[in-house]
Structure formats: structure tokens, C-alpha cells
Design brief:
This protein is of the alpha/beta class. The chain is built from 11 helices and 12 strands. The radius of gyration is 22 Å and the shape is globular.
Amino acid sequence: MTAVSDAGQDDILKVSGLKVHFPLFKGVLVRRQAGSVRAVDGVSFTVRRGETLGLVGESGCGKSTTGLAILRMTPITEGKVEFDGKDISSYTNSMMRTVRRRIQMVYQDPYGSLNPRMKVGDIIGEPLIVHGVDTERDVYRARIQELLHLVGLRPDMAERYPHEFSGGQRQRISIARAVSLNPALLICDEPVSALDVSIQAQVVNLFQELQERLGLSYLFIAHDLAVVRHVSHRIAVMYLGRIVEIAPRKDLYQAPLHPYTQGLLAAVPIPSPSAEALRPQQTILGEPPSVVNPPSGCRFHPRCPMAMKVCSEIDPELREIESGRSTACHLHDPAIVGMDRDPLSPLGRPSSAATSSARRGQPAIA
């Protein structure tokens, strides 16, 4: 895997206050709403042209739902999604048809995302038929061969069926189908998590090659911080339906601001056994709270080793700490300097070194 360079400043996607709530019902004869699942609860971020924004977090935090909501594949409860300067939040299905030519999705499961009864050439060419692009017979066949070559497969493989390919090859077929209409943005939902580690690197390199050749932008959803580090320009960290930190890749890995980000990075193993043994342990204790009834104040405070009384009372807003870096944490909010900073966490008061390092934007880990 190779590192990525800085991207341009022009936004192609802007998500503002996005909420996706799923109603819960109870009763058999008479069904009544009994709350809602707050899968996504006020998410805001941008994706620039030619950039990869990594979206990371624990399972169930709302990453995949965010991607589906952008494509309007799940209803939006509240908020705004702007693509290429146009608000698509209220678009009808017929209006979204045009948008979906320019926003495509690559799914996690390369086995389940391909129709086993269709030949690979027909799978790749299906978007062309649906949207009426390059449908003339000779042009269509040439385009299929071009796409197969683009993703590192032989043109003669178009006559085979999905079960004749390995997992990595199937994901390449999925990518070929996604780029067949020359989209501007790809939403990649855990695109390498189902693959072997050796194959993951090849597919990640393919994503980067396609970005350089086609000028693509990516929203790269994943839970593997090692993969996200190599493929992303900026990274957004999500917890329980909300963004808790957004920063350039280098800044986030070298000096994470939010305690949750620090805990995630501390859980990434170091290749050197001796260095791993000497590294102080900083784990995130407990389980994520319920998305049906999230805790008051900061949603991470029941698990945070640096939680204060104010964390249980006031929900911190995602605010810019310095150029390009934002976090939702009271440790970095000057407005609460004079407020009660007594520790709230059952883990006890953090050490002065840990607290001061967090306020400076340094990880409380070696």
C-alpha cells in the first residue's frame, strides 16, 4: 500500500446535520410507536474532489447507514445532502436516477453483491443498459473489455460466472461495475473487510490507481484503521451516530484529540512485539450505549477515562480546534474552562500527564 497525497479544496459532497431514525413499534393488535433507533443523529462532513474521506468507528455506529442515506437508499429523517452544489435531500426517485449515475457504491460482500445467474460481462454492463449508455453492440462489448482491463482482469473473463472467481476478483468485478458510468464519487462500504489480508493490499492499491486515473472521490467506510490510514486523505471518526473527530490523516494518527479516537488507535497492534509489550495499555471499557436511549451529554462519557461532570450534562458540538481539525470534546472547549472539571468516570481522575496531553491534542499513549 502506498500513502496518498493532499487533495484539492473543492467540495463535491456536503452533508449537514444528517439524521436517520428508524421507528420502533410495540403491540400485536394495536401497534404503537415505542421510540426510535437513532442510527445517524446529526452528522456533518464534506468530501472534496479527488479526495478520500475515511469514515471509521465501531460496528453499529451508523457508518453504513450514512452511506445509504447519501444515496437515498434509506429515508432521511432530517438534514441536508448536497452533491456537486445541489441539494438532493428531497429528490424523488426519478430525480435520483440521474444522481446515481454520478454516485456509485461498492459493497462489503463481493459474494452477495453479484448475481450468480449472470455472466460477469452482463453484470458489469448492466448499469450501461439501465441508463442507456453505450448500448450499441460493438461499443458495449468494447466498454466491457475496457472495464475488465481497468481493474486488472482479462477481457475473456466476461463470459464466466461469479462462482468461478476468487473473493478478490469478485470485488474487482464489483468495482468495474461501479465505475462503468464514469461516476464522480464512490461510496465504499467496508470494501476489503471480507478479503484476505494479502488481497486487501491489492484492492486498496487498485482504488488508489483508479482515483489517479479517473479523478474519483471516495467516501471510504471501514473499521480497520490500518487500511484507512493508507487510503485516506482525511478521516472522520464516528461514535453512536455522531462524528466525534475529523482531521487530516497524519494529524489524527500522530495526535488524536478525542479520547475515543485515542482508544481506537491504542487498540491497533504494533508489529514489533517488544514495542507492543512496552506500550501503556489504554482500552475502551464497556459496551456502546443503546441507540434507542443514548446517554445525556456526551455519548461517550460513560466509557471515557477522562469524563468530567460537564460531560454528562452538556452535549459537546463538533467544533474546529485548528485549521482542518475538528472534535466534539469538552477537553478542547475553552467555553468550559471555568466550569466544574471534577472527574466523573468510575475509572477515577486521569493522571495530570494524560489530562494535559489531551488538552494539547496529544495522545495519552506512548
